[in-house]
Amino acid sequence: MAGNTRGRMFRITTWGESHGPSVGAVVDGCPAGLPLAAADLQAELDRRRPGQSDLSSSRRETDKVKILSGVFEGETLGTPIGLEIKNRDARPSEYEERKEIYRPSHADYTYDAKYGRRNWMGGGRASARETAARVAAGAIARKWLVENHSLEIVAWVKVVGKIELKKDNLDQVTRQKVESNEVRCPDPEIAQKMREAIEKCRDQGDSLGGELQFVVRNVPAGWGEPVFDKLEAELGKALFSIPAAKGVQFGSGFAGARSTGSRQNDEFKMEDGKVRTQTNNSGGIQGGISNGMPITGSVAFKPVPTISQPQQTVTASGEQVTLEAGGRHDPCVLPRAVPVVEAELASVLMDHALRQQGQKNIPTSK
Question: What's the whole-model pTM score?
């Protein structure tokens, strides 16, 4: 495999480039009999699409998904599901003058170093445009997880630049609160401060990074594999594969590393006949396997590398030049990254749910 496919039981392959005719995915391993329509996927794509507010790229894509295969009479067949999303507002000619220039902190140079050639039209496969296909595929996983395990996956913007949501009551964060504003921060006052920071940075031709937090509720105990396929390792790999993601942590994460065992250990208790923990510093995963508590964590995203300020760089031939960047880009990727993070969580969790289901004489939940 060339790094475009992931999963063992629930497998996703994405294809397409930023300014090509389409992007899409092939989803293999979805069980037969799941009720599925394009509308189920479209709801998630609408949350990710560009041009939905003045805080995102001005690229106008409808992101209408078409199911090409694997669904018949409204239900999945168990065969590969083909998905296509047309690029309606691609403008490859805008990159013609800069095709020999390596843009700072983009994948231009590294793709040349790896393949000896690259698609210079908007970043090609390295563009966040590719994540539209992941969101469509992840919507299938989310629907299956909801119907079979009542899973609830919620991500939200916790940090933008120096503005931080410091409240940490994960039980009170709902999707409704997250979607109540364009920043996708569940606290309206903090969301307004984040909006103002993004607008100020955008007006200066610059960009901002930040941090997304997430919680997955109702995950049964027992999902995950020992050693190399530990659940947080698989989730971490998926989250790190999102463009601009630079840090992932679970539970108390790096803060827990500065604590002590007596404070960090999650003591066990019985609750409604089930084994649970008093605290959840482990983030719902112990020994690489889910323990029945909510899976919690966060993802750090760097500032979008496309900015409108002059930057020093070199060309493919080694000439030193000044890049006068422009084009359409998000001043802050965080609001549109929320559905992408949720899709990645759903895809990995469905893969492990199916793997657990396939373990002989081991129940799918407790």
Answer: 0.93
